[in-house]
Design goal:
248 residues, eleven-stranded mixed β-sheet, seven-stranded mixed β-sheet, mainly beta, globular
Length: 248
């Protein structure tokens, strides 16, 4: 018997008359379980894995809407494990952020287990002065395991104008293990910052680099031997992109 699962979850954040962020829509579906959790400024939602996966053939879809003036942080309680199965698995995230809104998307890493064929797609539409922090991290295989196939696509627009079109195909080791792609790295990730006051200078450090975009954004990419070092390198790139903290 073929096992395939399609899950569709959604979260909507709005701002009330007092400026407090509310969550009028928080819809879970199967493996995609969304839970509101205590946070700082705005609302925080954690993605809780209610079942294993995605397995090959599964399609997970998450829709995120942030209204004017609302602030939403989206996290996960654990890594996502992409597993082999019947065909390609997909994780699709579609986000819309209105003017004055802010979305901070930073789940735990995805792990591409041996034999998987996974495609991750994210499409973000920003309006006006909406701001964004979007972090994605990928670990190639479990401990002492060769990774499966993984392709990531990330598209961001501001008022309909493309800000970023980014795709990373890690489906052929003969290609991506070259020095021009990720070499022998076990983990790879990116962090996109969109908003005012960012340092608009390109920068390259050990295993990490920052690239100003043609628009209100800076893209930070990093590779590392493991997920902990990858997180540190992305954090160092973020600190540099945000510049020194004003005194007084």
């Amino acid at each position: 018997m073929t096992r395939r699962y399609t899950a569709r979850a959604a979260v909507t954040a709005t701002s009330d008359a007092g400026g407090r962020t509310r969550l009028p829509l928080l819809r879970s579906d199967g493996p995609l379980a969304l839970r509101e959790t205590p946070g700082g400024d705005g609302a925080t939602v954690h993605l809780v894995g209610a079942a294993a996966g995605p397995l090959g053939g599964d399609v997970f879809d998450l829709a995120v809407t942030v209204g004017p003036g609302a602030r939403l942080a989206l996290r996960s309680t654990a890594s996502t494990l992409a597993l082999p199965g019947d065909g390609r698995s997909r994780m699709v995230v579609r986000a819309e952020v209105s003017a004055g809104g802010h979305l901070d998307f930073a789940p735990e890493p995805t792990v591409a287990a041996a034999g998987c064929d996974h495609r991750a797609v994210a499409a973000v539409a920003l309006r006006g002065d909406a701001t964004l922090r979007w972090r994605e991290e990928l670990v190639l295989g479990r401990h002492r395991e060769e990774p499966g196939r993984h392709t990531g696509r990330f598209d961001v627009t501001v008022d309909g104008v493309p800000l970023l079109r980014h795709e990373l195909r890690l489906d052929d080791p003969a290609v991506y293990r070259g020095d021009a792609v990720i070499g022998r790295a076990k983990a790879v990730g990116s962090l996109l910052l969109v908003g005012p006051g960012l340092v608009r200078e390109p920068w390259v450090g050990e295993g990490v680099g920052a690239l100003p975009l043609e628009g209100p954004g800076v893209l930070i990419t990093a590779v590392a031997a493991d997920s902990a070092e990858l997180r540190r390198r992305l954090a160092s790139g973020e600190r540099r992109a945000r510049g020194p903290v004003p005194v007084g």
